[in-house]
């Protein structure tokens, strides 16, 4: 009984061995032809199987419930929105870097033109504006630097258009700037080409959005006109500003009450209303 069982179990192995021996003896050309024929025979079957899978996937999506389709649509919109936000963030960072480079370049040009080394050394600290207070009573800015960046009360603040104002209070990570348009802001200046000192005072912002100031104590022989206005700049007597930083433009002067000096309106750079970055001049 055991002998017959062993014989039956060994028969498959025997056939397999004979097949392998026979296949080994078959010429290579016949093997290639046979393999090619086998592949050609199964190719339609594999193609049909692939198409069945595609159809199954297609009909599977068609059988999705309305809620699933809505959910997939929301997910698609979420991904698209996220990509748009990321794109906007990158573009915003690029623009911010570009603005900072432009401001740094403008300040460097201004520093070179003014020759800040003539009487006093200044350290330039660029800061970003965080808050604007442009009411009719006061005009102030808040910047994102303070005691931690070694800023001091009274330091002059400029931008590529000229004087912005001065620091009036300093916190650990922020500082408040009194704008040049504030009526409480005063500074000694002079006109280009004339070294005699005059007094500038802030005068707010017009209804049209034009920032302006007033100039007093102007000698009678100074005569600006509409076609030939005069540039008002900071004086070496200005305290926290080096000589020659632009303040504004004067088109007309009128005689003062005492009959000795003139006064008039000073048109300031309109970009003060939309300023994003400033440079603090810290005395070394």
Helix percentage: 25-40%
The CATH class of the largest domain is identified as Mainly Beta
Number of strands: 13
Strand order of the largest sheet: 1-2-5-4-3-13
- Gyration radius (Cα, Å) is 41 Å
Helix count from the secondary structure assignment: 3
> What is the arithmetic mean of pLDDT?
76
Characterize the largest beta sheet: strand count, sense, and whether it forms a barrel: 6 strands, antiparallel, barrel
Structural class computed from helices and strand pairing: alpha+beta
| Reported CATH architecture of the largest domain | Beta Barrel
CATH superfamily (homologous) name of the largest domain: Rod shape-determining protein MreC, domain 1
Q: Keywords for this structure?
A:
284 residues, 2 domains, elongated, six-stranded antiparallel beta barrel, Thrombin, subunit H, alpha+beta
Description:
The mean pLDDT is 76. A hairpin with a 4-residue loop joins strand 4 (162-170) and strand 5. This protein folds into two domains: 24-63; 116-283, Beta Barrel (Thrombin, subunit H), CATH 2.40.10. It has three helices and 13 strands; from the N terminus they run H-H-H-E-E-E-E-E-E-E-E-E-E-E-E-E. A six-stranded antiparallel barrel has the order 1-2-5-4-3-13. A six-stranded antiparallel barrel has the order 6-7-8-12-10-9. It has 284 residues and is α+β, with helices and mostly antiparallel strands. It is elongated and about 130 Å long.
Brief summary:
With 284 residues, the protein is an alpha+beta fold.
């Amino acid at each position: 009984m055991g002998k017959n069982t062993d014989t039956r179990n060994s028969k498959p192995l025997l056939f397999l061995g004979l097949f392998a021996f026979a296949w080994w003896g078959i010429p290579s050309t016949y093997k290639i032809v046979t393999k090619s024929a086998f592949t050609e025979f199964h190719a339609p079957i594999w193609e049909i199987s692939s198409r069945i899978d595609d159809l199954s996937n297609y009909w599977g999506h068609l059988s999705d419930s309305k809620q699933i389709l809505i959910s997939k649509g929301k997910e698609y919109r979420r991904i698209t929105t996220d990509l748009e936000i990321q794109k906007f963030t990158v573009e915003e960072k690029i623009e911010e870097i570009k603005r900072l480079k432009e401001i740094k370049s403008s300040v460097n040009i201004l520093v070179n033109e003014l020759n800040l080394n003539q009487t006093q050394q200044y350290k330039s600290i660029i800061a970003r504006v965080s808050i604007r207070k442009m009411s009719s009573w006061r005009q102030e800015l808040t910047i994102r630097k303070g005691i931690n960046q070694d800023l001091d009360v009274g330091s002059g603040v400029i931008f590529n258009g000229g004087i912005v104002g001065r620091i009036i209070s300093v916190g650990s990570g922020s500082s408040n700037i009194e704008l040049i348009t504030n009526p409480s802001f005063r500074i000694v200046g002079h006109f280009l080409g004339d070294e005699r000192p005059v007094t500038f005072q802030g005068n707010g912002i017009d209804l049209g959005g034009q920032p302006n100031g007033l100039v007093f104590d102007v000698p009678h022989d100074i005569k600006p006109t509409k076609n030939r206005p005069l540039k008002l700049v900071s004086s070496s007597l200005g305290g926290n500003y080096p000589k020659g930083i632009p303040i504004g433009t004067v088109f007309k002067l009128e005689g003062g009450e005492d009959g000795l000096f003139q006064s008039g309106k000073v048109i300031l750079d309109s970009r003060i209303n939309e300023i994003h970055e400033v440079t603090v001049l810290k005395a070394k």
